[in-house]
Amino acid sequence: MPTATEFLGYQFTNLGPLTITHSPLPSCTTATTNNIEFAKATNPTAVFGWESCSATTMGKCHPSGSQHDKIRSQALKTGGMAVFDYFSPGLVCPQGWTTAGKLAHGDGSTITREGVFTTDDATPSYPFRMDEVWLNVLEPDETLAVCCPSGWTAGIAGICQSSIMPLASATYTEFCRRQLPASLIATAYTVGTSVYSDPIRSIRTWDNPEDYETTVPFATVNSMFPVDVDEVIVQRKLHAVHMVYKEGDSKEADKTGSATDSASSGSDDGESAASGLDGARVGPIVAVVVGVFIGAGLLFY
After folding, report:
1. pLDDT by residue (tens digit) across 29-71?
2. N or C: which terminal CB in the chain sees fewer CB atoms within 10 Å?
3. Is the peptide bond before 149 cis (omega within 30 degrees of 0)?
């Protein structure tokens, strides 16, 4: 499993092994009334707002839902850069989910990319893309696999999305908007020994997340959305399941599979397999390009 728990302010928590199939309820992917967000019809990863300002919860839809939700909830309270959790070794996507992308160091000279990591979303012209962050966490012989429900859109920010209907056909009258003041953005031009001409920014921690939340009527959004309201869709989001593994893990799992049941049986406790909540605390303020966490939708997930 990766030994790094932090890179560029992003926090990573190992939830333990996932070697048998987790079977979420059908409603996890068929529901249409929770975890709602509003996005650009032609680009689901371009999110403009949320139906609720509350943190997204996964519950039994995630192999270790209670631990995952605690990590995300704590991160929303403390602020800072995004948090991620993963299973290691993680070998099996939940039932009804599929591998949306893979990322690995490859032979050392060529990065191995599959699925979502080959899209334009993965290669913006910023010094630190989300795939580069993961590559600095993965060991040389490890592979990251991202699982999303079959048929859903996946983004490298770790969000799975499914369109429900055009906003014009829905009955929503307002949305949650979150905007950070300049005082919460730290700016730097160096990372380690590297110097950049463009400003590199990171999000500071905060005490009261509600200070940056506003409920906005859709009737007043013309100046807030970068597209016409007719181009906005209602969609549902779930957090992707991240798995890290290396060659030989599947054989080892065959020997010790019974020890992993608490993390993957769908009981939703998963506490014994997790490494604790320390990974949810955002560490030092470090340099990350502002376009990465805003453009990739990493704020307030």
Report:
1. 999 999 999 998 988 888 888 998 888 899 999 999 999 999 9
2. N
3. no
